[in-house]
Task: structure prediction
Amino acid sequence: MDSFSTVIRTASHEEHTEAETSTFMSDMLGGRLGVDAYARYTEQLWFVYEALEAGAERLASDPVAGPFIRPELFRLAALERDLAHLRGPRWRAGLSALPATRAYADRVRECAADWPAGYVAHHYTRYLGDLSGGQIIRAKAEKTWGFARKGDGVRFYVFEDIPNPAAFKRGYRELLDAVRADDLEKQRVVAECKRAFALNTAVFRALGEEFPLSA
Ligand code: HEM
Result:
């Protein structure tokens, strides 16, 4: 039988491809969007990580979600530095969530409050992705918009306290494999993971509408 980490990875493969090949992501990775689109995207991430990390402290002692709460993953401070760089010192005043972002953050908060295993699905979908494909996005952003390598503007993608992401991901998969839940609950977590991808794709769709290439 496949390990839980393998089941999650395999089950969300199609959703991953969909997110990765969304118009907005393709345009961004193709270097076809302006820095304003990147800043708007970074703002949306702020709402998602605010939801993920505001709930983290309380979940740290939870038997299921607790082992996943690792300060070296926290992204909110890095996002805030990036936003100050992208939008200026008054970045907070102009911050606004797209409806799709609000729906995503609401769902994360709901899981953080009532369903720790569901929170793990959201945690996995974001942080393991940031440690993987995030590095491709960082390189592209540095090249397209001229940010300093691993500097302001792309700090979100730089995990200063994770020197070896591949090893960290292996450890993370071991944590997933150690989650104590019955098969039905594991199926629910897999479904939540797919939902997390769909919530990301919905944000990309909204951003794609806001930044159409023909405009
Ligand atoms: C253009 C955008 C993206 C690219 C180029 C990309 C690329 C990648 C690559 C190359 C991996 C494999 C890393 C490995 O095997 O260790 C990966 C894994 C992953 N990505 Fe993405 N990705 C992108 C977008 C996303 C998005 C939007 C999400 C979800 C929000 C996401 C979530 C994940 C997750 C959860 C994994 C870990 C899979 C696992 O090993 O269990 N990715 N990505």
Notes: Residues 9, 16, 19-20, 25, 29, 124-126, 128-129, 132-133, 136-137, 169, 197, 200 surround protoporphyrin IX containing FE (CB under 6 Å).
